[in-house]
């Protein structure tokens, strides 16, 4: 007996299903990590609200007290003291904003990438029609957008609070709380922390160790960049003779100072031994050491943006390199 075979195609075992669309993958990342998204959004809102309160309420009180202090005169009141409370509040918020990238590194290495590699969730996703490259792209793109939006909001609000309401006699542009948090370097460090945490998790594949190593590695990177920060833009050098005094701007960031020995700059030359006696003794001591004058190298406040933007570019370059290394490492591990 001859039978006619069914013309409909039979399903093939192991054939992958349709590839999910990118928006669906992004929604999956948001759904899995919605708790972290809520915490991040809440943190940004709280810090921005705290800044607004410090500027509109505490700053207004400090400004009124400063006006009373000006009328009383410097002998009865110190203008800088009445601004201490407001400056401390804004300073703490700036410090938190500057170092939020450590929290980003911790979450990326521990929960975002490390936990899914350790539990096998990532490998299961790769069997459902999502390639490892698409999986990692979604894992990085969605947090990068969220972090960029939140960090940008913090930077904008902090710049408003720092520049509009601070004591005019305060010049802390180079301090830890104000240097990073007033520009795009805050966003660059956060994105770099995301990339470093990803590479660490791909290498270690365990959540808690990856969390710890990510924080340490990102912190060391920030420390290393800070050590060479002064060289990102040419500094200004002023010199004077043996008896002269170096006049620097009140907001100057001193990078190096020392003595001029036969026309050459010698930092940290022990010349304190020359002081304490007569003028002739001091001058003779200088002559014996070969000191012809003194110098100071510094950055004026006008160098803030050149220094900041160059540092931002350096950190973004590191971010791009580390991100490329993450994709290369993933392809090698899953080949």
Features:
13 helices, alpha+beta, about 325 residues, about 65% helix, 4 strands, disordered N terminus, four-stranded antiparallel sheet, 2 domains
Quick recap:
Helix content is 64%, strand content 8%.
> Looking across the biggest beta sheet, what order are the strands in?
1-4-2-3
Low-confidence stretches: 1-20, 79-84
Number of helices: 13
Beta percentage is 5-15%
How many runs of DSSP E, i.e. beta strands? 4
* N-to-C span: 50 Å
Structural Rg: 29 Å
Helix content: 55-70%
What is the number of domains? 2
Average pLDDT: 82
Task: Give a structural overview.
This protein folds into two domains: 22-230 and 303-334, no CATH class; 236-302, no CATH class. The chain starts with 21 loop residues before the first helix and ends with a helix. 64% of the residues lie in helices and 8% in strands. The longest helix has 39 residues, at 34-72. Helix 5 packs parallel to helix 10 (185-204). It has 13 helices and four strands. The protein has helices spanning 22-32, 34-72, 79-82, 84-98, 101-112, 114-119, 121-126, 132-165, 176-179, 185-204, 207-227, 279-289, 304-334, and strands at residues 236-241, 253-261, 264-267, 291-299. The protein is of the alpha+beta class and 335 residues long. Strand 2 (253-261) and strand 3 form a beta hairpin. The chain has a four-stranded antiparallel beta sheet with strand order 1-4-2-3.
Present the secondary structure layout.
Layout: H1 22-32, H2 34-72, H3 79-82, H4 84-98, H5 101-112, H6 114-119, H7 121-126, H8 132-165, H9 176-179, H10 185-204, H11 207-227, E1 236-241, E2 253-261, E3 264-267, H12 279-289, E4 291-299, H13 304-334
Antiparallel strand pairs: 1-4, 2-3, 2-4
Helix pairs in contact: 1-8, 2-4, 2-8, 4-8, 5-10, 5-11, 8-10, 10-11, 10-13
